[in-house]
Amino acid sequence: TIQRSYVLQLLYQPEYAFEKLxxxxxxxxxxxxxxxxxxxxxxxxxxxxxxxxxxxxxGDWLVQAEQSPYKELHSFVDGTKxxxxxxxxxxxxxxxxxxxxxSINKLKVIKRIMYGRCSFALLRNKVLLLERFHSVx
Length: 137
Description:
137 residues; 74% helix; single chain; mainly alpha
């Protein structure tokens, strides 16, 4: 029997890199549940656009995803269309703001932990001290 968590993990990884299912098991899964294969192909196509920085096929992908019977894909397409220019730029650009976003998330976690019980100076010192600690370890 195939665990549900394996199916969800398989959707977001290349089939060759997925080690929890044998190729025979994944092929059986795709034959038994064709919608899983459709979702897998759609997700992998989108991921390939991101990895290769090639946004040329985005319009075709959006049309294809919009015609699929899955409401989750429709929701994703609607959100993508609302911010299409930014998404195209993110696909085509080699730059990422991931490092900045990670730093902001870290700062917000520290701020929540302190729960408003300190001044900005104390927050600043705590962030700097934690950065120093992590760079040493």
